[in-house]
Each structure stands twice: as C-alpha cells, then as structure tokens.
Amino acid sequence: MLDTASLTRIGFLTLPNHSMIACANALEALRMANYVAEGELYSWRIVTPDGVPATASNGLTLSPTLALAEAGPLDLLLVCGGIDVRHAATPAVADTLRRLGRRGVALGALCTGSFVLAEAGLLDFYRCAVHWENLPAIREEFPQIDFVEEAFVIDRDRLTCTGGIAPLEMMLTLIEAKAGRTLADKVSEQFIVDRAPRRTEKVAARPRPLLPDPTLARAVRLMEAAIEQPLGVSGIANRLGVSARQLERLFQRHLGVTPAAYQLRLRLERARELLRLSPLPVTDVGLACGFQSAAHFSTAYARHFGRPPSRERRGAAPTPARA
C-alpha cells in the first residue's frame, strides 16, 4: 500500500504542448506547502526526456528543466499532458516510465498524461481519471483500465488527475496526508480555494448542464450511458415510469427539442470526440455510437456538422488546449 505521505521528491515530466495550468496548479501547491510550513516539505524537478524545455500549449516553457536521467531520486513522477499527447507517447518515453515503475517510483499523470501511462501498459487494471473530453476515446482504446468520472484518483502507486484546478485538489490530498488537515487548509486559503467540508463523495469530472426537472435529468443520464446501444424514447420512458408523451413534453418545455433529437445529438457529439481523439476507424466509431449502418452514420453526421466523418478526421482543427 502506497504511503502518500512519503511522496516528497516529485518530478514533472513535461511533454510538448502540455497544459500549463494543470502543471502549475500541482507545482504551486507544493511551493505553498513549503511556504506555510516554513520548511522544505517537498522538492520538485521539471524534467523532459532530453533536458530541452518542452513548450506548453500556451507557448511558454518552464525553466530550469533537467533531463530525466539527471533529476536524481524521485518518489513520484507526474506525466504532464495536453494537446496531441499521442505524438509525445514515444517508445523511449514508455520504456523510461516502465523502468521507473520497476524501481518503485510512483507514477501519475495530469490531464491527458494518463494516455502516456496507458500506452505504456502502466495503468492496466488500475482506476484512472482523465479529462472528461478524452474519456470516450480512451475507454474504447484501453478497456482493461477502469476509467472513472472523478477529478482525481489515487489507486495504489498510480495517481491520475484531470485538468484545470483538479491537480491542486489532488496535491492538497497529498499535503494533508503528510502534514495534516490544518496545513492543507492553510494552503488552500492562500489560493482562495474552499475545501470545507471534507469531501468524501465522488467529484464529477465532466460539467453537466443544469436541468430543472429530476425526471429530465435522469433521462439525459440514461441517454449518456447508452450511446453504443441507444434506448428508444419508449424504453427510456418505461425505465422512468412515465409515458412517452410526458417525456416528449419535458424535453420540449425545457430543452426545446424532442428526446430523439437530443439523443441523436449526444451520439453525434460522442462520435466527433472519437474521430478527433482516437485512432478507431470511421466505421468502428459509428458502431460505438449506435449506428449500425455506415451510410446512416455518414448522412446523420454530415447533416449535423456540415461535413462527413471522414473529412472530420482528415481536416479537424487542432485539438483545443486541455485545462
């Protein structure tokens, strides 16, 4: 069992186009812990495979940057991902991560860095958190990993985290394990982050629309959970204990569309995520989103987005920066 209090020497493996906000939130939590404690609780290193500073998705670099081989002993290495993380998941990086894992170094990831660990086989049969926009694609590609919709996950010697401010929350958890709740709260106060009351429930990693009716909210959750094998409107209504006509009225009143149209939009948006973020063939993307016919998928996609799925993959704009 990993003693999170022992993780005091931490490396940040910054990859090309990494998310600066995710990396900075994690790093600044350590700096502030030292400041509040008036002593060195933590030390850290910014590293790359070759020591050349990696340019983040915002065009900036972090300095000083060391080669990973020169970083000295580490208790935890966090892989900092961002845009186009697949191009950064090289065999050499994977070999280095496996070697560190064999040496007993705990491994973690911020934002899309989880993909690099997954590609290296270092998350098999672990629970894992990743940015919500990447969840559909990465779940299809790595079924042996238990991806969860939580802001961060600490599972044995793997620490994975979504983007934005979630890395700060994960590091506050490590700080609390080492120095106690009071000091962790003082760190969060310095950043004007409210941690009270103590969180024990799951933290949703994906923003959800605020829906004013509980039956409507349950209907949307059912649709989101059944993308590959969509439930018909009647099937959803039966599960909710309402009539199909009642369900139609709820969707029209609050969302301005029919349940069928809303469900189709969810499936097509999932398909676009898979086309942009996964290597799945177009036909497999359609099947994963409940389209049994490639022609039907292509027609529905083109009608909704203005271009066929094959062109989406060839001509998609660069993936936006992950938080």
UniProtKB/TrEMBL annotation:
Record domain HTH araC/xylS-type: where: 217-315
Protein known as: Transcriptional regulator GlxA family with amidase domain
Keywords: DNA-binding, Transcription, Transcription regulation
Organism: Ancylobacter polymorphus
Record PROSITE patterns: HTH_ARAC_FAMILY_1, HTH_ARAC_FAMILY_2
Lineage summary: Bacteria, Pseudomonadati, Pseudomonadota, Alphaproteobacteria, Hyphomicrobiales
Classification via InterPro entries: Class_I_gatase-like, DJ-1/PfpI, Homeodomain-like_sf, HTH_AraC, HTH_AraC-typ_CS, INH-QAR
Keyword Transcription regulation tagged: yes
CDD domains: GATase1_AraC_ArgR_like
Ranges where the record places region Disordered: 304-323
Pfam families, sorted: DJ-1_PfpI (PF01965), HTH_18 (PF12833)
